[in-house]
Backbone:
């Protein structure tokens, strides 16, 4: 286990799109609850369906409410299920993304979810990057306004270049630049940086410097060890130091566990986090 003092300063949420993925989606909230967690987050949970039926949405809502697990974070349409990295900046996905915005915001509102993540999307061969960036800003403004209407923040995330070579936001600075542009365009101030420490570490960034420089812009933090993207303790990241730095920098939001279990069995991957620290607070 990691040092309890460092972890105890934070509240945790488990990403059910990557953890407990050995189970059907609707069984995962109960599995998270059985492991001691009371908060969870999801990538877009309906695959390529940008507007799932009410019955599909109701089934997901029931899975969370029956398990007593709060959905704290949700992606807008991300197309991760078919290898994409979001739809925000992709011209061919303009209408699907815009149709998805009220659907995702409505689902989030019904579950009390206060963070919506909009993955930027890959560069498209033959399309001017400036055109993609202009579209992304238009779409992110729409998403930020929809999030604001339900009292939520809009998250913008940097990924890592080795695993997402066509994704343009591969540094904290690049993501924060987009955050600032969205906030300037809306005047709402609810666009925030999703700081995924695994992605930034894989990019070779100085994590301590990122925390010290941008902590006031963080809307959410996610973790996995590096290399491997498994649970803390399986790689080389010093989570005791990172948790302490986040607390010292004033970060009071949740930390999302977004890793693959080293053994392939999710329930066995939480030994590093004492059970009494798993409920969200």
Residues:
């Amino acid at each position: 286990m990691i040092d309890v003092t460092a972890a105890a300063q934070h509240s945790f949420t488990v990403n059910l799109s990557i953890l407990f993925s050995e189970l059907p989606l609707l069984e995962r909230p109960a599995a998270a609850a059985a492991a001691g967690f009371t908060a969870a987050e999801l990538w877009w949970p309906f695959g390529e369906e940008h507007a799932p039926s009410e019955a599909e949405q109701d089934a997901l809502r029931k899975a969370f409410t029956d398990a007593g697990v709060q959905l704290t974070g949700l992606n807008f349409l991300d197309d991760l299920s078919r290898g994409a990295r979001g739809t925000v900046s992709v011209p061919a996905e303009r209408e699907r993304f815009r149709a998805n915005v009220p659907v995702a915001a409505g689902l989030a509102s019904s579950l009390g979810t206060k963070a919506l993540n909009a993955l930027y999307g890959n560069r498209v061969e033959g399309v001017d990057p400036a055109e993609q960036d202009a579209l992304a800003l238009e779409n992110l403004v729409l998403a930020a306004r929809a999030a604001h209407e339900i009292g939520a923040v809009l998250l913008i995330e940097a990924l890592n270049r080795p695993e997402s070579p066509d994704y343009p936001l591969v540094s904290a600075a690049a993501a924060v630049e987009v955050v600032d542009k969205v906030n300037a365009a809306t005047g709402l101030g609810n666009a925030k940086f999703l700081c995924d420490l695994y992605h930034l570490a894989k990019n070779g960034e100085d994590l301590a410097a990122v925390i010290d420089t941008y902590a006031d812009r963080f809307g959410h933090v996610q973790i996995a060890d590096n290399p491997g993207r498994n649970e803390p303790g399986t790689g080389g990241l010093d989570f005791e130091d990172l948790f302490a730095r986040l607390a010292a920098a004033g970060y009071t939001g949740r930390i999302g566990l977004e890793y693959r279990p080293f053994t392939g069995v999710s329930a066995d991957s939480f030994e590093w986090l004492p059970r009494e620290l798993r409920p969200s607070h």
User: Anything to note?
Assistant: Strands lie at 11-15, 39-42, 70-75, 115-117, 153-157, 191-196, 218-223, 254-257. Residues 85 and 121 are 5 Å apart (CA to CA). The chain has nine helices and eight strands.
